[in-house]
Write a structure and sequence with these properties.
There is one protein chain. The C terminus is likely disordered. This protein starts with 18 loop residues before the first helix and ends in a 37-residue tail after the last helix. The chain is globular. The protein folds into two domains: 76 residues, Arc Repressor Mutant, subunit A, CATH 1.10.10.10; 145 residues, SCP2 sterol-binding domain (Nonspecific Lipid-transfer Protein, Chain A). Helix 10 runs antiparallel to helix 12. By secondary structure, the protein is an alpha+beta fold. The longest helix is centred in the middle third of the chain and has 15 residues. 30% of the residues are buried. The strands form two sheets. A five-stranded mixed sheet has the order 5-4-3-6-7. Strands 1-2 form a two-stranded antiparallel sheet. The protein has twelve helices and seven strands. 37% of the residues lie in helices and 14% in strands.
């Protein structure tokens, strides 16, 4: 079934009998491509979509979802339990995956350079990581990974991993960390997006992993990495065609890393204060014009 034209008076109308104009009426509204991106990534509830789009107001998100539903790109479903509405892509919506990927590939080639400080968000990064976990590879018991990000927007975020559920905590979850990952926030973005190899980041000290050696060796195998990583690996102006290593190579580097053999321990806390940042090797300066990871 063809998608319909939206009759929302707030939606831009181009009044042109052209497929590009018709598609743009649906997709070219501000925030709409990112809403579709999150639906493709597996976010189905309103709060999940909102959490992945910091900066969007709840009223605007509701409007965008309603517009996509009106034209037949999104279907709103209310489950019997817990009774909350979910948003799922229709066949027309699922076909937009290729469009979003093509937009990302174009962005890598022509628009992706050094990140601005306001673009780096540790909580958002770990949220994206939690969307792309190989659950079948996780240990059977709950595993807690603490990310200790340093830099201008330093913060700690926790990833709780179980085969049945993966969740993110931006405050201490009440469980001891099994693994502690320490890295500059901008550098870990580069690792996640594929600009810096995981194994190389371990070797040079840009990234350290503290915890049991066997568990630290498994960590990179749990991640699917960013869906944009394959475009960054392919190379673009200023990127140099770098790649994330194969899981086996990353595991070997993790096993040989001195940090991987250290037991996980909470950061030292001054009396009545916040945890002190761990001492680590300085991250290498990125090449001029390099993309954020």
């Amino acid at each position: 079934m063809d998608v319909a034209r939206c009759h929302d008076p707030d939606m831009q109308k181009y009044e042109q009998y052209c497929p590009v104009a018709r598609a743009s009426e649906i997709l070219a509204e501000r925030w709409t491509p990112l809403v579709v991106r999150e639906l493709i990534a597996g976010s189905h509830r309103f709060n999940e979509i909102e959490r992945a789009l910091p900066g969007i107001s709840r009223s605007l998100l509701a409007s965008r979802l309603r517009q996509l539903e009106d034209v037949g790109v999104v279907e709103r479903v209310v489950r019997a339990s817990p009774g909350l509405p979910e948003y799922h892509l229709t066949e027309a919506g699922r076909e937009l995956k290729a469009v979003i990927e093509a937009l990302g590939a174009w962005g890598v080639r022509w628009a992706f350079r050094d990140p601005q400080p306001e673009e780096l968000d540790g909580g958002l990064l770990v949220w994206k990581i939690h969307q792309r976990i190989h659950r079948e590879r996780l240990p059977l018991r709950r595993t807690v990974v603490e990310f200790d990000f340093t830099g201008p927007r330093a913060r700690r975020v926790w990833l709780l991993l179980e085969p049945r559920e993966v969740s993110v905590c931006v405050t201490p979850p009440g469980f001891d960390a099994d693994l502690v990952v320490r890295a500059d926030l901008g550098a870990f973005y580069r690792v996640w997006l594929g600009q810096i190899e995981y194994a190389a980041a371990l070797r040079c000290g840009t990234l350290t992993v503290e915890g049991p050696t066997a568990l630290a060796r498994q960590l990179p195998q749990w991640f699917m990495w960013s869906p944009m990583a394959r475009f960054i690996r392919a190379g673009a102006p200023g990127l140099g065609g770098v790649s994330v290593p194969l899981a086996a190579e990353a595991s070997a580097a993790t096993a040989s890393s001195p940090a991987a053999s250290r037991p996980a321990s909470p950061p030292a806390r001054p009396a009545g204060g916040r945890p002190r940042a761990a001492t680590r090797s300085a991250a290498p300066r990125p090449r001029r014009g390099a993309a954020p990871g």
